[in-house]
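hey can u check if this looks right to u? its 249 residues, i copy pasted from the old doc so theres a chance i mangled smth
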Amino acid sequence: MSKQQFKFSNSVIIFPVLMLLSVWLVFWYQTTINYGIKSYGIRPHRLEGLLGIVTSPFLHGDLNHLYNNSFPLLILSLALFYFYNRVAWKVIGFGILFSGLLTWLIGSSGNHIGASGLIYVLFSFIFFKGIFAKHYRLIALSLVVIFLYGSMIWYVFPIKQGMSWEGHLGGLITGLLFALVFKNNVAKPERYVWQQPDYNEDDDPFMKHFDENGNFIESLPDEETEIDSEDNSETPINYIFRQSKDKSL
């Protein structure tokens, strides 16, 4: 399972790059053609604001806002598609919907835009899923993620004016829930032969080389018998005589 799970393919790079490119293209359209689309963000507690659940991740306030979201979005989505390829689109698609809905429910008045909600979904899912899965590679990934982006946790609190902490909190909660829900198609810890439920120590060829006191026996009686029988087996030998043509010999 783990070997299939951690298999590199072109989609690991192509899909994250296309996602980031689409966000940049929307920003280009917003700044050069129709600045009004910026208003299609999440507007909490308003029916018309529900549309922003889908559109808000592609909208950004300015270039600095977009720049700050671009690198985490790319890096975390690359990690998602490589280590969790089988559930990657579910995490992204449902992550946008659920985190956006939570933002709409708990958010204060205003227009909430930006891909940071999705970024918090990816951050939360990758971190918590690695811990829950107990696979050494996924745990290592969790540690890398918390090292790179651990400071993001502070922005789920209202510590900065003008920043949608509700969107961040919604993303964090959504990622945690997904880490608990998505159990299938995720790499499992490697189990050795003696960890299998049907393992029988008496049938283990290696364990047979130890006596009841724990002493190692190099050759078992059965093995010695097989070796002796092979050595004692007679191999037929055929001799071919050729009559010499030289009669003087």
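The two ends are 76 Å apart (CA to CA).
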